Amino acid sequence: MSRALPLATMAPEPALPPLPPRTTAPGVVSIRIPVTGMTCAACQSRVQRTLQHEPGVSDATVHLMMANATVIYDPITVSPERLVEAIRDTGYGAELAPPERSAFAEQEARDSAVDAEFRVLRRKAIVSGVVGAFTMAIPMVLPRAMMGAAAWILMLVTLAVMVWAGGQFYLRAWQAARHGASDMNTLIAVGTGAAFLYSVIATVVPELFAAAGIAPDLYYEAVIIIIALILTGNAFEARAKRNTASALRALVHLQPKIARVERNGAELDVPVEALLAGDVVIVRPGERVAVDGVVESGTSAVDESMLTGESLPVTKSAGDRVIGGTINGTGAFRARATTLGEDSVLAHIVRLMHDAQGTRAPIQHLADRISSVFVPTVMVIALVTFVTWYVVADTAPMVRAFAAAVSVLIIACPCAMGLAVPTAVMVATGKGAELGVLIKGGEALQRAGDVTVVVLDKTGTLTEGRPAVTHLMPASGSPFDSDAGRLELLSLTAAVERLSEHPLAGAIVRYAAARDAVTRTVESFASHTGRGATGVVGGAAVAVGNEAFMREWAIDVAPLRARADGLSGKGKTPLFVAVNGALGGLIAVADPIKETSRAAIAELRAMGLEIVMVTGDHEKTARTIAADAGIDRVVAGVLPEGKVAEIRRLQASGAVVAMVGDGINDAPALAQADVGMAIGTGTDIAVDAGDIVLMRGDLRSASQAILLSRRTMRTIKQNLFWAFIYNVIGIPIAAGVLYPAFGFMLSPVIASAAMAFSSVSVVTNSLRLRRARVG
Question: Is 556 a catalytic residue?
Answer without folding.
Answer: no
